[in-house]
Design brief:
Shape: elongated
Order of helices and strands: HEEHHEEEEEEE
Number of helices: 3
Radius of gyration: 15 Å
Bound molecules: zinc ion
Low-confidence stretches: 21-25
Number of domains: 1
Structural class: alpha+beta
Distance between the termini: 25 Å
Mean pLDDT: 90
């Protein structure tokens, strides 16, 4: 787990930067931020979006129905992260949830999730693509930032299948 100590400061820096963008754009329904940092075949992903896109509501879950909806949405996010962030199949990347949390502020709330990614090889020189709406149709504009070694990319994902070559 040595890579965590290396990647974590980068991911924090990326996320903080994304957060600053966000303050200008505020809490905007339908929008999200994803930060991905890699070293070799090990990566970390953070995803941040208003809960409305993932859960369909933002109030505190008090009824059994809402609590179940929240549990279901979180497990859907966990299970589908590899369909939303798609690495080359030959890399055999596996995703592991680090955390999925909801932060409620007044009438609004945000989902903050992070994952570890373990691939058999470094993704350098391979394509990556993003399909958020297929899984969460309301997530229609996601700003992705990607850092690996000397590579730094950013992409505004507004439709499924958008991506880039990691180089
Ligand atoms: Zn909201």
């Amino acid at each position: 787990m040595k890579f965590i100590s290396f990647l974590f400061p980068i991911l924090v820096a990326v996320t903080v930067e994304a957060g600053e963008h966000r303050e200008q754009g505020k809490h905007e329904h339908g929008h999200g931020q994803v930060a991905i940092a890699f070293e070799g075949g090990h990566g970390m992903i953070s995803l941040d979006t208003p809960a409305e896109s993932i859960l369909g509501f933002e109030h505190q879950a008090k009824s059994e129905k809402d609590k179940k909806a929240e549990t279901d949405a979180f497990s859907k996010l966990e299970k589908s992260i590899g369909e939303m962030i798609v690495f080359a199949p030959a890399l055999k990347c596996q995703f592991l949830k680090d955390k999925i949390e909801r932060k409620i502020q007044g009438n609004h709330s945000d989902i903050e999730a992070s994952f570890h990614v373990q691939c058999e090889k470094s993704p350098m020189g391979t394509p990556i693509s993003f399909s958020f709406q297929k899984v969460f149709p309301k997530l229609r504009d996601v700003k992705v930032q990607f850092i690996a070694e000397k590579v730094q990319k950013s992409l505004d994902v507004k439709k499924d299948g958008m991506g880039f070559e990691i180089k």
